[in-house]
Write a structure and sequence with these properties.
- This protein has 195 residues and is of the alpha+beta class.
- The protein folds into 2 domains: 13-110, Glycoprotein, Type 4 Pilin (2-Layer Sandwich), CATH 3.30.700.20; 114-180, Dna Ligase, domain 1, CATH 3.30.1490.
- 32% of the residues lie in helices and 24% in strands.
- The protein contains 6 helices and 8 strands.
- It has a 4-stranded antiparallel sheet with strand order 2-1-3-8.
Length: 195
Amino acid sequence: MMDSAETRMALTTAQRRDLLQLARNAIAAYIAGLPLPATDLPELQPVHAGAFVSLHIGEQLRGCIGYVDEARSLPEALRDTAIAAASRDPRFEPLTAEELAQVEIEISILSPLRKIESPAEIMLGQHGATIKLGPYHGLLLPQVALHHDWEVETFLAHVCQKAGLPAEAWKDSDAMIFVFEAEVFSEGEVSSARS
């Protein structure tokens, strides 16, 4: 498990490669209607963490789904989130076999959520955020703010919009803001790295 004092889980390059391959194999099996791959990565079975899988074709997002809960082992969570990102992101049609060949997979492994009292505690690029207000909740990963070069208030406005809330809902006294860190890696980065 990641400790909130740690910035990164510090997976090895080989572990990152195994998780990315598991995600790709899971999507391929799902699309083809074949049995899903086993999640037998023994050294990672004891690890429980929230995880997101993002799919990109070129610079364009093609799907992103994840879970913040830590109920399942990391390999199992990543297998399921990879399939969900490819098939259940409501913003996109399900991924096709032809598109899978063009997709680059990115994985984000989340630290535990930490409630904050002030937006001043958010460190852009290091923290992702989730907002909860009544039955609504939304989440954006740390890399999103960097990609768009947002300020903190703009980042929080987009988290609110992701939750289906007005952009300024984060200012509501009943809104709860949580931050988290993520270890983020993609196929392109891992394939060029040495083990």
